[in-house]
Amino acid sequence: MPSHSGLFTVIERAARKAAPRLRRDFNEVQHLQVSRKGPADFVSMADKRAEETLVEELRKARPDWSILAEEGGEIAGDPNKPRFIVDPLDGTSNFLHGIPHFAISIAVEEPMANGKREITTALVYQPLTDESFWAEKGKGAWLQDARLRVSSRRDLADALIATGIPFLGHGNFAQWSRIFGAVAPEVAGIRRLGSAALDLAWVAAGRFDGFWESDLQPWDVAAGMLIVKEAGGFVTDFRGGDRTMERNEFLAANDVLHSKLHKLIANALR
Ligand code: IPD
Ligand code: CA
Ligand code: CA
Asked: Which of 112, 128, 237, 265 is buried most deeply by CB count within 10 Å?
C-alpha cells in the first residue's frame, strides 16, 4: 500500500463502515422493483442511512470540521479548519433501478494560506466491487495500491467519452445537445453511466478517455476531480479555464484529448 495520511484512513474507514448496509439495501432493492410504487422511499432511506454513518464516523474523528453532505446540507464547524464534502450515494437512479453502478464520494477541502480552499484528499469508493479510487494532493492517484494514470490515447477516434445527460428539468439540454452533436461523430463512443463521481474516477483509471457534464454539485465532483488531476489529467470548465465550480462545467481528459475536446466544445458553443 502506498503511504497515505491518517486523514485518508479516516475517510476510507467511514466509507467501509457505510458500505455493507448499502450493499444489503441494494440487494433488497432488486426485490422491490415489481411493487407499484417501486423502491423510491426505501432508497431514499438507504441514502440517508449511509450519510448518517459517514457523518457520524467523520465527526468522531474530526469533531470540529464542517461537513457539506448532500442530504443533510452543511454542518457548521470551525471555519478555519478543513471541510468534508460527502455524497453518500452517487448514482441514485442506478441504485433505484437495481443497476450495480454507484459510489460513495468523500473529499476534504482545506483552507490555504492565500485564503482560497483546495481539495487535498479524495475517495470514490464503489461498494459492490470494493474498488477504492483515491488521491492525496501531490501524492498521485491510486486504485487500492496500484498507481492510476489517465489513458494515453491521443486520437479522438479511439476515445470512449463519458457524459451526464440533463434530465427532469435539470441542466441545459440544448447546450448538452450541441456538445453531443459535435463530439459524438468524432469519437469511438459515448457513455452515460449515471455516476459523475465514478465517471471521473474512471477517467483517472484510463477506462474512459474523457468526460464532460454541467450542472453538477460539489459533492458529485470534488473527490473525482482531484483523482483525475493526480492521475495526470486535466479538469477545466468548457472554456478551458479553472472556474469549474463557478461556471458549473466540467471537462476532464488527458492533455492531448482535453485540448481536442475543448476545441470541439468551444466551436459547438460559439
Ligand atoms: C447524480 C449523478 C449523475 C449526474 C447527476 C447527479 P446522484 O448524482 O452523479 O451522474 O448526472 O447530475 O445528480 O443524484 O445520483 O447523487
Ligand atoms: Ca451525486
Ligand atoms: Ca447522491
From this structure: 265
For the chain, the structural domain boundaries read: 6-147, 156-268
Please give the Cα distance from 235 to 238 (Å, whole number): 10
Q: Say what the pTM is.
A: 0.97
Please name which ligand lies nearest the alpha carbon of 202. 1
Cell of 1: 500500500
Describe the strand order of the beta sheet including 146-147 as a list of residue ranges: 73-75, 66-69, 83-90, 103-111, 117-126, 131-136, 141-143, 146-147
CA-closest residue to ligand 1 atom 2: 195
Q: Which residues line ligand 1 (CB under 6 A)?
A: 87, 89-92, 164, 194-196, 213, 216, 220
Residue-wise pLDDT tens digits, 43-71: 889 999 999 999 999 999 999 999 999 99
Q: Which amino acid is at 73?
A: G
Cβ atoms 228, 213 nearer than 8 A: no
Nearest CA to ligand 1 atom 8: 90
Q: CATH fold of 156-268, please?
A: D-Maltodextrin-Binding Protein; domain 2 (3.40.190)
Query: Measured between alpha carbons, how far is 104 from 169 in angstroms, rounded to an integer?
Result: 25
Residue 89 Cα to ligand 3 midpoint, Å, equals 4
